[in-house]
Amino acid sequence: MSAKYLLLGLLALLLINSCSSRKPVVDPQLILQNGITFWNYNLQYVRLYEDYNAIDEKAKSVTRETFLRQLLTGRYLPLRLQSADSTAVYQLYPLPAKVDPSLKALLQQWAGDEYQFYRAEGKPLPNYHFVDMKGKVYSPQTMVGKIVVLKCWFVHCVACVAEMPALNALKQRYQDRSDIEFVSLCLNPKDKVATFLGKTKFDYATVANQTKYLENQLKIGSYPMHFVVNKQGLVVKQVNRYQGVVYTLNKM
């Protein structure tokens, strides 16, 4: 074996050992106690809308799609490992045989959502023609050359309303960017939306009565939901946390 290939082999071995020696940010036994402990861990440490490195149970690098498809099986926990830099590292951690079936079902449901978000990337937003409460039209033709940030919600969604102050601040941050449109698609009819907006400050342009589009075209089953669409009309990110919108716009 030449010195060149020997050196490459040693470097690969060092990389594998480095990955496998990393400690998890949280003990997996604590994460897997029940659905609440998993969800708390998920909310605090798992951000798959960000750039990350994925490895399997043997610390071998895998693609995002492979990683997410393995999570879909319900056999693995996305275990975040300590990292020396800002890029997160997640490892497929095999679930114990005696894990609570309800927790396994929760993991699979969450993984299904994340895989759906991943699959949306790079695809055009389904054909649309929105008219907001002030009469402005949003369509592939009128949005040429613009980034479109969409929030999908309904009036009585507590989580949807709770994030509105943060979204108002986000829109304010980009107020000088004429190439970015912030639009919300609401399930409720126009009169109910008008009553809500008369009491609650929300600075996105709002399109009412969008149940058919959200359910039949975007296939949304939980709210809030967000999409960031680039200037070419392709979905860059689908997320159910507004922090993912902030992250994506920062990168763009």
Give me the CATH fold name of the largest domain: Glutaredoxin
Largest sheet: 5 strands, mixed
Total domains: 2
CATH homologous superfamily caption of the largest domain:
Glutaredoxin
Globular, elongated, flat, extended or rod-shaped: what is the shape? elongated
For the record, the CATH class of the largest domain is Alpha Beta
Encode the helix/strand succession as letters: HHHEEHEEHEEEHHEHEHEEH
Per CATH, the architecture of the largest domain is: 3-Layer(aba) Sandwich
Q: What Rg, in angstroms, do the CA atoms define?
A: 21 Å
Mean pLDDT: 92
Q: Give the strand tally.
A: 11
* Uncertain runs: 3-19
Structural class: alpha/beta
Terminal Cα separation, in Å?
45 Å
Strand order of the largest sheet: 9-8-7-10-11
What's the total helix number? 10
Strand residue content: 15-25%
DSSP helix fraction: 40-55%
Domain Thioredoxin: 119-252
InterPro entries: AhpC/TSA (IPR000866), Thioredoxin-like_sf (IPR036249), Thioredoxin_domain (IPR013766), Thioredoxin_ResA/DsbE_sf (IPR050553)
GO molecular function: antioxidant activity; oxidoreductase activity
Keywords: Signal
